Amino acid sequence: MIDVRVPDEQEGTKAVVRGWLKKVGEAVSVNDPLVELETDKVTQEVPAPATGVLAEILLDTDDEAEPGALLARIEAGVYEPMALADEPAAPAKNSKIAALTGHSVTGGAEKRLSPSVRRALLQHDIDPSRIRGTGRDGRITRDDVDRAVASATTVSVGEPSTAQPRHFAGQDIPHDRMRIKIAENMVQAVTDAPHVTALFEADFSAIAAHKSAMAAKGVKLSYTAYLIKAASEAMAVAPAINGRWEDDRIAVSPTINIGVGTALGDKGLVVPVVKDAGTLDLQAIGRKLDDLTGRAREGKLTGADVSGGSFTISNHGVSGSLLAAPIILHAGQAAILGVGKLQKRVVVREIDGQDAILVRPMAYVTLTIDHRVVDGHQTNAWLTRFVEILENWPAA
Asked: Where in this chain does the record put each Lipoyl-binding domain (predicted)?
């Protein structure tokens, strides 16, 4: 018997079983997706570690699954695929029957649907053939269904798509699992760590000029890439910013792994991590960031993509906020940078010994710290250096 276990890479984050993709007694091949697990960050599939028959399921749908926990057992060997009792002899005639039987027909290819996906499709009256699956081999996952519901599309076979709002004024919005986990993490974060926030202001003129010059050369960079690079360099003046509180010491991370908050609409947010940012140049950071944020919005992040962060950036200004003081969500971090909306403002600058009134692209930047780890002078030293790097960015 071969054990199937919850991956250890979740680093202690609790997961729940979202839905089984195979039934007891069903033949499986190595790397076949067996079960979907969901945390507050990502939904991931656990593949079969061997070829054989699924002999036993030990954690049912909605059960909590700690890292390393035993999910199921496979009786190893080579077996012919067995037809399931509820499997139709002929392809389903329409999406309703396909959803009921656990199959969808897309481009002539039959794909298994998990029980949770099947229930969600029926509940929201969604045609699975209209959903682009992001799972293994194009299979539809529960996140794919959730995104379809969030975009408020209800489709029947042979009828055009009709957009409708997901929620109406005065209508309650039930909690999903991600919202519950976010709430739990928020409460724990402010309970465990004493938060203090410092506020600075940064002139983005040099960054804007460099960004435009790079775009003219065919290199597209986001402002967030510059923020990651500047934050990485600022760690030199206050290394504890890249550390965490332990009972017997302040543990400073040997690598600078910067998480970037990425909004997922009404599904909350995830924080993909740019690993070893301190060793990367600006363009390499830009490429990694584009890949991570793109996969985040497509629901394709893995547990490794959202783990191991030592510092976080919340670029809340992209949604219009001028000023915010984000809280530190990860127990293994000591600080979080908040960056507000880039806005043209009137500033006073000294030019040739005279005060001059200028219009510059400005943004408020905040650093919220765990006061057990970092004191005010370190916080201000870090922000001073961070702003200095942004305002003196060399020309392209």
From this structure: 1-75
